[in-house]
Amino acid sequence: MSINITTLSAGQNVQITQGNATLHIHTGGNHEQSNINRITVGGVETTPQARDNMIQQIRAAEQIIQDAPIDPDTREEAQFNLATLETQLTQERKPNANIMVQAAKQLYRFSPAIAGAVISIFSEPLVGQIVMAAGETAMRFYEALMNAKKSKGI
To answer: Which of 52, 100, 150, 152 is the most buried (most CB within 10 A)?
Structure first.
């Protein structure tokens, strides 16, 4: 049983029932409890909202690849690399830095629009945290990417 209570205000007693389980709480007054849902993505504890923001950037990159003026074989390769990057970023454990960086580097070379989509993905705060968890190889790539972003005024 999992119950998430954002705010609880009660005078004396609270009873919570779920299926066959009942929880009785004597409050003795007003108490507030805050509980934020936490999940693990890429070896980093985060919120579902942060994960959803990252996924939104990945979906935007999918659309950019679909719309890019590139030949079908190149599109297929770009889609494969984006799927690889998504797997590395969204799995529960920390990513393999070499696989993650290789997929991102390959995406970056296909077209300026796809390169911009890669920068957008890596600009998500959660991705920065995942990169830090992934280690030195990923950090070097991330720093180079963010420096390129600054120099291009993106």
So the answer is: 100
